[in-house]
Amino acid sequence: MNGRAKKEKAKVNRLRAIQERLTPLKAALLNHPIYQEIDRLESLHLFMEHHVFAVWDFMSLLKRLQQDLTCTKVPWFPADNARAARLINDIVIGEETDVDPDGSYVSHLDLYLRAMADVGASTRQFDTFRSMARGGTSVEAAMVRTGVPPHVQAFVKHTMTLAQSGST
């Protein structure tokens, strides 16, 4: 077997190993109890009204990775790990500027907010939170002031801690 064939075989074996590790995780995800809980439109509304905060705070984690693994400063220099930089930048492009059904660019957060409106879930609490946070109110204070449920506050607080001071 030549060097190229060995590399290809090693690549295939790595992919198989990844697929094997992911199989039970995928099954657990597909059988998650949340699917039994969302059995009425009102349940879907409640889920989405809470989950929108996770859709939003994911970007803080992603932006932290982008800061650490790519160059977001001036002057610019190439990233130490071009593969990691490419992966992160590809994810950022998809999350910040995906293509909507009309062919326009839109963030995944805005797509999610549109989906909430489409099913009749309220975006009021999140919109108020976002306005306050954008205006300079701390994320924690904005969540408290807008009455975000404690379990959502705890989740977002954990994410923000990771994004601000966790290790890459």
Overview of the structural elements:
With 168 residues, the protein is mostly helical. The protein contains eight helices and two strands, in the order H-H-H-H-E-E-H-H-H-H. It has helices at 3-30, 34-37, 41-69, 82-96, 108-119, 124-134, 139-145, 150-165, and strands spanning 98-99, 105-106. It has a two-stranded antiparallel ribbon with strand order 1-2. Strand 1 and strand 2 (105-106) form a beta hairpin. Helix 3 (41-69) runs antiparallel to helix 4 (82-96). The longest helix is centred in the N-terminal third of the chain and has 29 residues, at 41-69. The protein is globular and about 65 Å long. The model has no long low-confidence stretch (mean pLDDT 95).
Summarize the structure.
This protein is mainly alpha-helical and 168 residues long.
Set down the secondary structure blueprint.
Blueprint: H1 3-30, H2 34-37, H3 41-69, H4 82-96, E1 98-99, E2 105-106, H5 108-119, H6 124-134, H7 139-145, H8 150-165
Antiparallel strand pairs: 1-2
Helix pairs in contact: 3-4, 3-5, 3-8, 6-7
How many β-strand runs? 2
Q: How many DSSP helices?
A: 8
- The value of Rg in angstroms is 20 Å
Oligomeric organization of the protein chains: single chain
Major sheet strand order: 1-2
Runs in which pLDDT lies below 50 for 5 or more consecutive residues are none
- What form results from the Cα inertia axes? globular
Q: Report the helical percentage.
A: over 70%
Structural class category:
mainly alpha
Distance between the termini: 39 Å
Beta-strand portion reads: under 5%
- Give the overall pLDDT as a whole number: 95
The secondary-structure element order is HHHHEEHHHH
Largest pleated sheet: 2 strands, antiparallel
